[in-house]
């Protein structure tokens, strides 16, 4: 199956955001996550379906996703629609609930495309960006918080790629 560029960008964002939840399962279970056993999880929405659904509510141009993927920022950071698009995809995939709790099993399912050796390179980045988001955006709305976190991760990974710390993502 070949994914569109837009779907690939959203998959990267989804993977980055939910990766933190898998790495810190124990802490997440006590604070911001719920555990669902794999036998309880029956239906998984395809990522492309989530992207299509969210794009019907939160229109986002492919060029904006490309810019975010390249720079870590949307062209206009004052617009909320692209930020809410990311939040919507997470909810459609079952990764994030309406009350902003994360489902570990759903996160695990959507992360299966990442090889485990890559996660080690991302642990510090994810922890740092969660801390940054909590400190900088503690009172922000859910869309803004999602954007600040994803932006932090993309910028940090870009910095590491440029410095040669990470060979490949």
TrEMBL record:
Cleaved signal peptide residues: 1-25
SUPFAM superfamilies linked: Insect pheromone/odorant-binding proteins
Superkingdom, taxonomy of origin: Eukaryota
Keyword tags: Signal
InterPro entries registered for this protein in UniProt: PBP/GOBP, PBP_GOBP_sf
GO terms of molecular function: odorant binding
Pfam families per record: PBP_GOBP (PF01395)
Keyword Mitochondrion recorded: no
Keyword Signal: yes
Name of the protein this chain belongs to: Odorant binding protein 6
Organism, scientific name: Chrysoperla nipponensis
